[in-house]
């Protein structure tokens, strides 16, 4: 199999590619990771990969005064959108793609912990359908939301947050939630987000316990979902 390439924009060390990386490597992708705000992102534009994967993080897309490098990241994503380049966005990544596509990103209802999503009919028929094997339960960890970008199709919602997943043709898969997390990584999330958990009044023991119950099944379903999307996208 000819080697394909994926560029990964990572905003936190512990919010890494997880099962997306597994699905990519299974299909012959070599991953090159860029740390947002630290690494030079110009190679992503100058030497385009087959796929751009944009991962999560705790900052807001709109916090460009505090984190000015966000402007360059958004411009890079906008350029890739215009060129028809394939992308997967997770949480902050989904928000950055929405912003680059011209949609509004803003504070919303905070959702942290394991809970189901409700797929749309389009979502059930898409690669997201693999999550049915996990009863549509996923890990949520966000406080912002976004308007659906022009030309995007809604794939899933929750009662509190309408726009949980969207697709732009076979070019973009964008997820507000985290099906990429491997259960063995949850402790790093609990440590890294301890301040946010405390402010939200969420007991880390509850997330840890539920991860032990459902994490492996969700990760397996997530890996199948990403593999199916990659196949449909010709990657």
From TrEMBL:
Cellular component annotations (GO), alphabetically ordered: cytosol
Highest taxon above the source species: Bacteria
Domain Glutamine amidotransferase stretches: 20-185
Keywords per UniProt: Glutamine amidotransferase
InterPro entries, A to Z: ChyE-like, Class_I_gatase-like, GATASE
Short name of any one Pfam family annotated for the protein: GATase
PROSITE patterns for the chain: GATASE_TYPE_1 (PS51273)
Annotated protein name in UniProt: Glutamine amidotransferase
The organism of origin for this protein: Cupriavidus oxalaticus
């Amino acid at each position: 199999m000819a080697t394909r390439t994926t560029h990964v924009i990572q905003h936190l060390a512990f919010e890494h590619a997880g099962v997306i990386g597994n699905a990519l490597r299974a299909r012959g992708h070599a991953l090159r990771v860029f740390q947002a705000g630290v690494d030079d992102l110009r190679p992503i534009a100058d030497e385009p990969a087959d796929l751009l994967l944009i991962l999560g993080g705790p900052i807001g897309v709109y916090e460009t005064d505090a984190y000015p490098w966000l402007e360059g990241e958004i411009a890079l994503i906008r350029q890739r959108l215009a060129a028809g380049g394939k992308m997967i966005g997770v949480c902050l990544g989904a928000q950055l793609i929405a912003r680059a596509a011209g949609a509004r990103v803003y504070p919303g209802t905070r959702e942290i912990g394991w809970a189901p999503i409700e797929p749309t009919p389009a979502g059930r028929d898409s690669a997201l359908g693999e999550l049915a094997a996990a009863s549509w339960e996923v890990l949520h960890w966000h406080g912002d939301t976004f308007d659906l970008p022009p030309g995007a199709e809604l794939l899933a919602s929750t009662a509190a947050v309408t726009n949980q997943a969207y697709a732009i043709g076979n070019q973009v898969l964008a997820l507000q939630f985290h099906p990429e997390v491997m259960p063995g990584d949850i402790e790093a999330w609990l440590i890294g987000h301890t301040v946010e958990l405390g402010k939200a009044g969420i007991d880390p023991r509850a997330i840890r316990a539920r991860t032990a119950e459902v994490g492996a099944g969700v990760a397996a379903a997530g890996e199948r979902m990403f593999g199916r999307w990659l196949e449909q996208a010709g990657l």
